[in-house]
Request: fold
Amino acid sequence: MSFGERLKAWRTVRKLSLVELGKRAGMSHTALSGIERGVRGANVGGARPQFESLIRALKVTPTQFYGTIPAPWSDAAQAA
Reply:
């Protein structure tokens, strides 16, 4: 599963729109859309890495992000 596919899956689990996730992560919804579709990469370096902003906005740890993604209707998804 690609980074963009994981991002979209977690966004779906958290029931966030591209616009809402963008606001929480300090990114535009068009940039997020590009990352999800794989036409744009996420910056993992620099002063404020996008990956760090995204996982904070999704309220997951890096380990959770790259681990098993809970189904949107599961108890694990509702707990967050």
User: Anything to note?
Assistant: The helical segments are 3-13, 18-25, 29-37, 50-58, 62-66, 75-79. The mean pLDDT is 83.
